[in-house]
């Protein structure tokens, strides 16, 4: 909304203050500055506020606003006087205003840094978190305008407003004066205020997805009058799934006399429906979608699934249509899945929603699935169905214009019916937020991700999000740091998801292998070694082994304390008549399931070849139904033993057994064991979140996954092992050593950076000279060995005399820097004669001194040459990198990465995660180097770029790590205005 000419031209309308937010109940609203055009809206809003709320705002009866009030509340300079409004459907539902004041409480201008603040929220919208959202945004605006404190006068009876201030997390002071509570809030963000803000964001976004997945009523807009078509297909699927809510068919082309369609009420518009519709599935051509969205907004629909295509996947014009669609929906408080979506599914017994184009609703299970591709969604649903796995929820978001993978992570974290979250992503709209949410979610349940479009360097059509320039290997490393299980294919995602959803996490890397085929056992053994596992020699049961032999061997392996997981390999066994018996796998499945039911909580996977029906029988013999609620203490430990029960469909459970959970329709038998990823480790069971009080460690059925190839089973198990290790480590977070604070001069570094940027008008910033880089790094305790220029042999000799022999002579020309393989470096130059000779060789070989820019440097102690870098990616944030110096490491991409700020654990893992790490620890009899000094260097550099985002690039190369200490021989630093961050500041929905 643009300002009118009446407003001050010196302070233009701050459109960057506009934001869409998710409120506490999951609905959306828009926050924007109030302008002079809002007079009528303000008056209308005030008329709908109760007398009590008006009294709390003005401390006296105030039935209506005078013309003077309206003028004052709608005319702002956006510096000393600012007003923000929350709108839904274009109408105000809440306002906030600040006025800058001096020490005496009178109106003032800068440099006064205090402001009086006041809120007013319409009674019908109180309790939705409107005031809390306004406080976040008005505080950010105030900080931008140089205001550091808010003062507020609140009547003692206004408990709601006092609670808003108290719960904001800001440092505050309170006093009681003249019959009112006087509050002063320091606006500098604190750890508590950030935690409060993110907690509110998490709960609100999770609730917004929950409203979409569990609606009380659904209208399919665009339902065809004849069978076929997208809308009619969705209606049919809703009915076939047994949706528990109310369903309506809507099409403006219906005949006026048509009352029902496929047994549900038929209407020409939402206005004809007597009750509120919670979810609308829109299946009309793109040019008719705005009309449908407006109809939904005007009749209180809470959320939309837009199946219609013709948006950003069609190019720039479609992208603008997509943005307008999102703006329109959010203006009514609605969230969108789509456009170009495949649909959503919720298998909860109380919902049974299939608002998608999937012809068959999956069985109820413990896996949540999010995909940005309809085709991939179809493939994943089909693959999971074939292998007998059930889902808790499914979202295929299409162009992902609004609801994203981040929202799904928020929901999965909260959802007690989801144990594993699977995500197929083609773009990351906010990578920093994704890694933060993934880390929190992965601390309580596995997150498995396949990233499509990894190497294209662009986003897929329809995904209008920022493009990250960091390599895919770096993205993978950062996901691993956040606990995400990153796999390459959807097949691997299904493989890992099945094992994680049905089996406990392994306690270590030791694997027992048993089966009736020596060759298949050896293949499995080799695959384990290739994946970094520690397999025991395979146990060959011979081809004469019976199902009972399998059961006995598996039970023995599960009871053996020297293994952490078991892989069973099976080929058709030889029967009594000496012939191979393929059977349907039912007998073997029952034997294995009974062994697991009586053994310890270790993961089991089956590799089978040509045993018909084994996978299906294992799926049928192991339910994926929801767990029984049970309260456990945070210190709950995994049980050492398991319990089992068997129930046949239509048959009562044994006496004393708990009631059976609802089973998938095709399941004939259910064997329940106390297994599952949430109950296998100790420390991480104490991780707190709202949904973890009872069901994170709840015993539930253990489904034994079956794989047609050894490599697939082993790869899935290896991912589970790495994830379990991450969970154990994440339970005790890393920290930043306190000794760093005593040797870091943050203020000195800030002053130097400010001075350097003041001399660089180019918004791209500038590189620092060698001496400038040394000075900046020195403020953070990073000592760079000095170099002296050597433009001619005499200067080189003088420099060497000053530094002391032996010295190194090297070029610093950009095309030769760090290229020892090209002959641009001479080491251990012992005296003047050797130096003059080396200088002549260098210039004869590579060119004139003016081209080579040679320098002389004192020799460093012998050690391992390494490279330490830090850089800022506009999308992903600050990244710390480490590797060995030299062409081999560069060619092989042997570099490790971590997000900044790095902890002591991150630094230790960083240097140990490269493939060449053994070189640092005494490989082939060499002396181990000082890795503790290297870890300290990484932590110091991490602190530098975290404290000063203007440091957009640092490269320390080489860093020679000796058995005692290290030496930084070269450093390059680039400064620039920091890129805008989308993960800080008040919460807001992204606008793509």
List the helices and strands and how they pair.
Elements: E1 19-22, E2 28-33, H1 39-47, H2 51-58, H3 67-74, E3 81-88, E4 91-101, E5 114-121, H4 130-144, E6 149-154, H5 159-167, E7 172-177, E8 180-186, H6 191-213, E9 217-221, H7 230-240, E10 246-250, E11 260-261, E12 264-267, E13 279-282, H8 289-298, E14 303-306, H9 316-331, E15 335-337, E16 343-346, E17 353-356, E18 364-371, H10 374-386, E19 391-396, H11 405-414, E20 420-425, H12 431-442, E21 447-451, H13 472-481, E22 485-487, H14 490-502, E23 510-515, H15 518-530, E24 534-535, E25 539-540, H16 547-559, E26 565-570, E27 573-574, E28 580-581, H17 586-597, E29 604-608, H18 614-620, E30 646-648, E31 669-671, E32 706-707, H19 710-730, H20 746-758, E33 766-767, H21 770-778, E34 787-789, H22 793-803, E35 807-811, E36 825-829, H23 832-846, H24 849-852, E37 854-858, E38 864-873, E39 877-884, H25 887-892, E40 895-899, H26 904-912, H27 931-947, E41 951-961, E42 966-968, E43 971-975
């Amino acid at each position: 909304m643009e300002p009118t000419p009446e407003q001050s031209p010196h302070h233009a309308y701050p459109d960057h203050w506009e934001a869409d937010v998710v409120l506490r109940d999951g609905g959306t609203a828009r926050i924007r500055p109030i302008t002079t055009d809002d007079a009528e809206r303000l008056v209308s809003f005030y008329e709908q506020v109760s007398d009590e709320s008006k009294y709390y705002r003005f401390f006296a009866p105030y039935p209506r606003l005078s013309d003077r009030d309206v003028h004052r509340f709608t005319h702002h300079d956006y510096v000393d006087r600012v007003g923000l409004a929350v709108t839904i459907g274009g109408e105000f539902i809440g306002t906030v205003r600040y006025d800058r004041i001096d020490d005496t409480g009178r109106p003032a201008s800068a440099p006064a840094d205090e402001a009086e603040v006041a809120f007013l929220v319409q009674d019908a919208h109180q309790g939705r978190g409107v005031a809390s959202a306004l406080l976040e945004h008005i505080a950010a605006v105030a900080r931008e305008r140089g205001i550091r404190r808010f003062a507020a006068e609140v009547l003692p009876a206004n408990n709601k407003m006092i609670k808003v201030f108290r719960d904001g997390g800001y440092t505050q002071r309170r006093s009681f004066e003249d019959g009112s509570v006087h509050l002063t809030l320091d606006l500098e963000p604190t750890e508590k205020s950030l935690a409060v803000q993110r907690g509110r964001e998490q709960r609100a976004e999770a609730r917004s997805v929950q409203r979409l997945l569990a609606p009380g009523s659904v209208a399919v807009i665009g339902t065809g009058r004849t069978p076929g078509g997208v809308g009619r297909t969705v209606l049919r699927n809703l009915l076939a799934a047994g949706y528990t809510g109310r369903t309506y068919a809507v099409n403006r082309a219906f005949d006026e006399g048509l009352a029902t369609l496929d047994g549900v009420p038929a209407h020409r518009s939402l206005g004809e429906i007597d009750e509120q519709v919670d979810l609308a599935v829109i299946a009309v051509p793109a040019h008719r979608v705005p009309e449908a969205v407006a109809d939904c907004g005007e009749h209180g629909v809470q959320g939309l699934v837009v199946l219609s295509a013709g948006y950003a996947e069609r190019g720039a014009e479609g992208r603008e249509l997509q943005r307008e669609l999102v703006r329109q929906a959010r203006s009514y408080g609605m969230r969108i899945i789509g456009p170009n979506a495949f649909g959503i599914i919720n298998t909860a017994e109380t919902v049974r929603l299939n608002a998608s184009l999937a012809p068959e609703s999956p069985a109820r299970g413990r896996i949540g699935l999010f995909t940005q591709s309809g085709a991939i969604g179809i493939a994943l649903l089909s693959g999971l169905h074939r292998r007998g796995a059930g889902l808790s929820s499914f979202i295929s978001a299409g162009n992902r214009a609004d609801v994203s993978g981040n929202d799904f992570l928020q929901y999965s974290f909260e959802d007690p019916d989801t144990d594993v979250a699977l995500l197929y992503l083609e773009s990351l709209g906010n990578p920093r937020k994704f890694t933060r949410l993934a880390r929190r979610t992965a601390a309580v349940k596995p997150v498995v991700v396949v990233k499509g479009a990894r190497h294209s360097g662009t986003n897929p059509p329809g995904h209008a999000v920022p493009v990250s320039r960091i390599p895919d290997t770096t993205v993978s490393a950062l996901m691993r740091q956040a606990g995400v299980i990153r796999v390459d294919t959807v097949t691997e995602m299904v493989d890992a998801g099945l094992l994680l959803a049905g089996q406990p996490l392994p306690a270590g890397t030791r694997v027992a292998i048993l089966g009736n085929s020596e060759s298949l056992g050896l293949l499995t053994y080799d695959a384990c070694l290739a994946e970094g596992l520690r397999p025991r020699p395979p146990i060959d049961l011979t081809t004469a082994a019976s199902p009972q032999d399998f059961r006995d061997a598996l039970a023995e392996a599960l009871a053996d304390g020297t293994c952490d997981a078991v892989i069973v390999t099976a080929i058709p066994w030889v029967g009594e008549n000496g012939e191979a018996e393929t059977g349907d796998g039912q007998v073997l499945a029952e034997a294995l399931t009974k062994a697991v039911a009586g053994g310890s909580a270790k993961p089991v996977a089956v590799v089978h070849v040509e045993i018909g029906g084994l996978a299906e029988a294992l799926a049928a013999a192991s339910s994926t139904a929801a767990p029984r609620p049970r309260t456990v203490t945070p210190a709950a430990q995994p049980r050492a033993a398991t319990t089992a029960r068997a129930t046949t469909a239509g048959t009562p459970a044994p006496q004393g057994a708990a009631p059976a959970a609802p089973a998938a329709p095709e399941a004939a038998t259910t064997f329940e064991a106390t297994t599952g990823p949430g109950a296998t480790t100790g420390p991480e069971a104490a991780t707190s979140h709202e949904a973890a009080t009872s069901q994170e460690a709840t015993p539930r059925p253990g489904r034994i996954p079956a794989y047609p190839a050894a490599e697939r089973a082993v790869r899935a198990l290896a991912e589970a092992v790495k994830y379990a290790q991450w969970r154990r480590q994440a339970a005790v977070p890393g920290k930043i050593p306190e000794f760093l604070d005593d040797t870091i001069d943050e203020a000195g570094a800030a002053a130097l950076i400010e001075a350097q940027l003041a001399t660089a008008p180019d918004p791209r910033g500038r590189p620092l000279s060698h001496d400038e880089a040394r000075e900046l790094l020195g403020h953070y305790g990073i000592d760079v060995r000095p170099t002296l220029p050597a433009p001619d042999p005499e200067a080189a000799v003088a420099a060497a005399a000053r530094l002391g022999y032996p010295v190194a002579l090297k070029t610093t020309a950009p095309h030769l820097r760090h290229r020892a393989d090209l002959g641009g470096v001479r080491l251990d130059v012992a005296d003047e004669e050797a130096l003059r000779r080396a200088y002549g060789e260098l210039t004869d070989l590579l060119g004139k001194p003016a081209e080579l820019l040679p320098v002389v440097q004192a020799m460093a102690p012998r050690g391992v040459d390494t490279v330490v870098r830090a850089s800022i990616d506009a999308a992903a944030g600050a990244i710390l990198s480490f590797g060995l110096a030299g062409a081999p490491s560069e060619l092989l991409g042997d570099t490790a990465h971590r997000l900044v700020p790095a902890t002591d654990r991150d630094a230790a893992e960083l240097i140990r995660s490269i493939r060449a790490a053994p070189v640092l620890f005494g490989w082939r009899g060499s002396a181990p180097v000082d890795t503790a000094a290297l870890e300290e260097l990484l932590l110091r550099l991490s602190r530098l770029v975290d404290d000063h985002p203007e440091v957009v690039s640092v490269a320390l190369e080489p860093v020679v790590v000796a058995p005692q200490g290290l030496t930084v021989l070269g450093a390059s630093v680039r400064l620039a205005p920091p890129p805008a961050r989308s993960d800080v500041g008040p919460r807001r929905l992204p606008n793509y």
